Amino acid sequence: xxxxxEHGERELKVLDLxxxxxxxxxxxxxxxxxxxKSYRWMGLNKISExxxxxxxxxxxxxxxxxxxKLEYESRHxxxxxxxxxxxxxxxxxxxxxxxxxxxxKTLNNWLNKKAELQRYITAWCKSDEARYQxxx
Length: 136
Known about the structure:
Oligomer: single chain
């Protein structure tokens, strides 16, 4: 794992976690041992797109270098989009986990990655709020 600068640590860590979450989710969705091929049309493309959008939105947020209130609001907007997509994806995948009676280990691994990413996004938002409170 790379070493991070003090202010950039949370942003870079969240991007690493996001990429890992995307890869884990896409591998899970493509596994015929977990989700039979005949059921893939039932919304898995939507989940795949949402997971990729999480990563895209976090990268967009990270690429906004805040110097004024509008840039802060834009950055926060992309962070919020990523977080809400993460929650929605979790709800959708939970349904699939229940339908296909997935192994507890597979489910727990995915849920742990999701929870860790949620914690980091939340911490990043709080850090930004404190860091940019005087911008206006």
